[in-house]
Request: fold
Amino acid sequence: MKIVINNENDTIRLGIIIAKIASNNNIFCLKGDLGAGKTTLIRAIIKNLTNVKEVLSPTFPMLLNYQYNDIIIYHYDMYRLNKPEDVWNLDLEEALNNGMVFIEWPEIIENFLPKSKITITLSIIDNNIRNVKILAENKFITKIKNFYK
Reply:
């Protein structure tokens, strides 16, 4: 599925939509260049799930956790990960088996992730406009399409 977002408000709107359909054990992989909007999108999702006022970027801690009802939300940023196997020191196994997972810069660990993951790629068109490509199971894509009718 492809979506064009024209500004930051559209990115936040997409985040709100994803928050409405996300569920436990979803694994979201966000790809894109620096400044493409990965963190903005994840912030919108987490804010709408948890009502946390400030969602930080996990660039330096590499992992931040949030609580949503009985679900732990794991927000990873793999940008600074040196070796794929280092991810096991960041509770990835627990996250994949018992939580909702958001991973920025997932490329280094993709071999460890299940095929059922949801991949969202943001491509910069110009200062504000982004192409968003979502690869996921049909059920998830259908739910998003229902919001864009």
Q: What stands out?
A: The longest helix spans residues 8-21. The mean pLDDT is 93.
